[in-house]
Amino acid sequence: PVEVAIVSVGDDGGSAASSSTPLGEDKVGEIWVRSASKAQGYWGMPDKSADDFGATLIGGSTTFLRTGDLGFLHGGELFICGRLKDLIILRGRNHYPQDIERCVEGASSLFRAGRSAAFAVSSGNEEQIAVVVELKAKQNRATCQSLVADIRASLSKEQGVQIGVCYLCKDHTVPITTSGKIARSWCKRNYDAGTFETIYEWQDDASGAAEEAKNGGSDGELADDDEAGVDQEPVSQADIDLLLQLPDEELLAKLIEDTADVVALPAESLREQTGVALVTLGLDSLGLAQMKQMLELQYGCPVPDDWMYFDTTTLEEVLVAVRMGGVTEEQAADGRPLEIQVDPDGGNKLLQTCPCLLMCCPKLVLG
């Protein structure tokens, strides 16, 4: 018989400790196993053997083999999720490369199925997600730029992640193993060595790097991309009053453009998802904090930290918050959508600054 234990994964991508408490059912972690056929260790590698073959559960004395595989138990059965070394951990959140790769390949029929890789790369003091994907045939620069935008939008919408690097590669150049699986560690080495055969390269400007086109050897200048983390300066109350005079459609458009600039997401993707919760748009904790600062400094709209994470907090809801001049702790306490109380006699300041508000804003309550 084989004894199986699932243990938690640490922030560094390894097991939480060489001694750990097993997780319950439906919890993903590293798979530890023990049986009569477990080896003693590696020849001539005592330290490595102790780490991999000598793991123990807290309160126990028997040793387990750390498989390096991720999985979970459900209904007494073991399900494999992937390899621990391939797991991408950014700001405490786990990202599975298989999910990212499937999303990337589904963004366009021009990509080769099963020939993409996602992995973590360093950028200054932070890590970013890099993706490489094969094109079935060479494309011009405009098409490649559009494809990268599609990838970023799909990952933002479906996986809630942002990427820092995207390489569109020549056919049959993304490394695979002898069994036909994507060799992510080889891809990482190729990226570090700069040896990928690319048709087009894109890197987030926020990392200090610029995107580069390699179509036919042309070195044409590329359009500017979104920047994240830019310094934000407060605007005057007079400027805020002018903003509030805009119809909802125009004010929402400006919110979208400003948000795209601050958090480095494609504006087109945001326009298509104004009713989607911010937390599912690819905004992590840093992006939400930057957006909160933008609302306070540029729109005079202070909001509680927790409110940015609510499932009801969408771009449309942000528009309502801006019209209200902010959100109080009491208003955000129950997590319900905001409601603007409007004076039917016309005394409300919101109606004075935006006469069309009753027609264009769906979340008004008369009374």
TrEMBL record:
<feature type="region of interest" description="Disordered">
    <location>
        <begin position="207"/>
        <end position="229"/>
    </location>
</feature>
<dbReference type="InterPro" id="IPR025110">
    <property type="entry name" value="AMP-bd_C"/>
</dbReference>
<dbReference type="Pfam" id="PF23024">
    <property type="entry name" value="AMP-dom_DIP2-like"/>
</dbReference>
<dbReference type="InterPro" id="IPR045851">
    <property type="entry name" value="AMP-bd_C_sf"/>
</dbReference>
<dbReference type="InterPro" id="IPR009081">
    <property type="entry name" value="PP-bd_ACP"/>
</dbReference>
<feature type="domain" description="Carrier">
    <location>
        <begin position="246"/>
        <end position="326"/>
    </location>
</feature>
<dbReference type="Pfam" id="PF00550">
    <property type="entry name" value="PP-binding"/>
</dbReference>
<dbReference type="InterPro" id="IPR036736">
    <property type="entry name" value="ACP-like_sf"/>
</dbReference>
<protein>
    <recommendedName>
        <fullName>Carrier domain-containing protein</fullName>
    </recommendedName>
</protein>
<dbReference type="InterPro" id="IPR042099">
    <property type="entry name" value="ANL_N_sf"/>
</dbReference>
